[in-house]
Write a structure and sequence with these properties.
Length: 289
């Protein structure tokens, strides 16, 4: 497989994991370097106590984030690449992908559009977010929370105390977890967040649908940051275009910059050849065993 197909497949995998499961299914803080700590809570605490602690103590508002990331694709092909992500809270996510110090591609999404660019051969993919998600109310703020490992109410942002009456919360002592299931955001889709009973960190997001196999995001390596508790590793497993997709994102929050006014901005590509969504689906389908 050539570099163009690898890069575009990687971007498509990250995109279609969310889109496929989405459309039919998925206080001021201090400057860079200072961080919050996890809130200690008794292992015997009730789920009500845990939820209140979660929404009042574990997470903080933030404005921007710049953080190194390594992306590893293990299915349908093995491939890894490093880069840096730039996030403006509630507005945009830009991931710059680099090889041997040179930027070879970007993935950019805001509340209106998604762009994937491959800079060596000058190819790009452009899709409208609404049509891509097919009515599923996923926002950029939700995507940002998903990426850094914080729970959210689809289309409404982080959980609040007022959300409690709309949530199904239970404990699962056998697995040492407790779970939050929000109301279905669309017909035929449910999603559940699972948390550790030992420290209340998010461990897993499971998305179940009527038409697709379940998709899972498994989180690990929790880190305290100015945004509260986040997870440095996320492993995504899903199916897109009838092809198993497995992607791992590893964030280096120790070298992250939070709430900086100087954040890299994305520029629309010029002189590039556009690939359609069907081209990406065909590309993924060609990797079926």
């Amino acid at each position: 497989m050539n570099a163009r197909n690898l890069l575009l497949t990687l971007g498509a995998a990250l995109t279609l994991v969310f889109a496929t499961n989405g459309c039919r299914s998925s206080k001021s803080v201090s400057a860079t370097g200072q961080s919050t700590t996890d809130t200690a809570i008794s292992r015997d605490a009730s789920v009500e106590q845990r939820y209140k602690s979660l929404v009042t103590s574990c997470y903080r508002e933030w404005s921007t984030l710049s953080v190194p990331v390594k992306i590893e694709l293990s299915k349908p092909k093995r491939f890894s690449i490093s880069g840096r992500a730039y996030m403006e809270r509630n507005k945009s996510v830009l991931i710059s992908l680099r090889f041997l110090g040179m930027e070879v591609g970007t993935i950019y999404v805001d509340n209106d559009s998604l762009f994937i660019t491959e800079k060596i051969h000058k190819y790009y993919v452009a899709e409208g977010v609404k049509s891509l998600l097919g009515g599923y109310p996923l926002t950029v703020a939700d995507l940002q929370s998903l990426l850094i490992g914080q729970p959210f109410m689809a289309g409404k942002g982080p959980f609040t105390e007022a959300d409690r009456k709309n949530l199904y919360i239970c404990d699962a002592p056998v697995s040492s977890t407790w779970t939050i299931t929000p109301p279905p955001p669309a017909d035929g889709i449910d999603y559940t967040f699972s948390f550790s009973m030992s420290n209340d960190r998010l461990e897993r997001l499971t998305v179940t649908t009527d038409d697709y196999l379940p998709a899972t995001v498994v989180y690990s390596d929790g880190s305290p940051t100015p945004a509260g508790s986040v997870n440095s590793v996320m492993n995504i497993a899903a199916t897109a275009a009838k092809t198993p997709i497995a992607v791992s994102l590893k964030w280096n929050f120790r070298n992250a910059e939070w709430n900086s006014p100087d954040l890299r901005q994305w520029k629309r590509p010029k002189g590039y050849t556009r690939l359609k969504q069907k081209d990406i689906i065909n590309m993924l389908s060609s990797f079926q065993p």
